[in-house]
Automatic annotation (TrEMBL):
This is rRNA methylase YtqB. Signal peptide: none annotated. Gene3D superfamilies: Vaccinia Virus protein VP39. InterPro entries: MnmM_MeTrfase, SAM-dependent_MTases_sf.
Length: 274
């Protein structure tokens, strides 16, 4: 398995206020500790019985990453290394250390609704301020998502979720202009159990990533699980990887988690905005 930090490019965006996240420490040798100073809140300390050297490549010099213990991420990471956890499990565990109660988040590809539900459980609070904006171009996906939410949530909780039958590239059209977003998540590919001929493609996914970069707030995260096993998956993976690699090192910290001997395994890519 290879865990790589990616170099970046900048986004033109003006925000009302920007909070910096001061983090520091020394480099680790395991898992997410290979990120960088601003993503040290997502790093994982090494365990004596399992030491995996994380290799990373970057086009820019970077300071040594910090090292902070994060409950949950370590368990999911070890489970993923041993083949007992999915890429989406790792993504969900990372979200927990970024998203707060009352935040606004976006599920850019609702699918069967499991990511949407996980997001709602992170942002929902008694004040009713948390919001989840979900979208998918397939009616079947939105129906499946709505059904899962109905089964899993109370009516008041479900009111915090807004679903839209639209392409993820148009997310800025459905999210209020004055709202800053803490998390935008992509689970790319085709709908599980649906028509495999209908899938996300690199052209619209790149537009969606650019839109996500404009609406994400400092301290927020763009999370993408990319599937390389379907016909257009490899092209989409290379496009997402190139996008993340081009983001500015001043504003973004990006990384990927990739299996070495399973070339068709899904690849989680994280883009953290400083």
């Amino acid at each position: 398995m290879r865990f790589s930090a990616l170099p970046w490019r900048s986004f033109p965006r003006t925000v009302a206020s920007e909070k910096k996240i001061p983090l520091s420490g020394k480099a680790g040798t395991y898992g997410l500790s290979a990120l960088s100073p601003s993503l040290s809140a997502l790093s994982v300390p090494p365990k004596p019985l399992l030491r995996c050297r994380a290799s990373f490549s970057t086009l820019h010099d970077a300071a040594p990453p910090g090292e902070i213990s994060l409950p949950g991420v370590e368990d999911e990471m070890v489970g993923y290394i041993f083949g007992k956890k999915k890429a989406t499990d790792v993504a969900h565990s990372v979200w927990k250390h970024v998203v707060r109660r009352g935040d606004t988040v976006v599920d850019a590809t609702c699918g069967n609704g499991y990511d949407t539900l996980a997001m709602l459980r992170l942002v929902a609070d008694l004040s009713g301020k948390g919001r989840v904006f979900g979208m998918d171009i397939q009616e079947e996906a939105l129906t499946n998502t709505d059904s899962l939410l109905t089964q899993s949530l109370t009516p008041s909780e479900k009111e915090l979720v807004k679903l839209f039958p639209t392409c993820h590239s148009k997310m800025e059209e459905v999210i209020p202009k004055d709202v800053l977003v803490r998390l935008v998540a992509f689970n790319l590919g085709y709908l599980p159990g649906g028509d495999k001929e209908i899938s996300t493609v690199s052209e619209t996914t790149l537009l969606a990533l650019e839109a996500a970069g404009r609406i994400i707030e400092p301290g927020g995260l763009i999370s993408a699980v990319v599937y390389v096993g379907h016909p257009k998956g490899r092209e989409e993976f290379e496009a997402v990887q190139a996008f993340a690699s081009g983001l500015s090192t001043e504003d973004w910290v990006c990384c990927k988690l990739q299996m070495l001997n399973r070339p068709l395994a899904p690849v989680p890519i994280f883009m953290f905005k400083r």
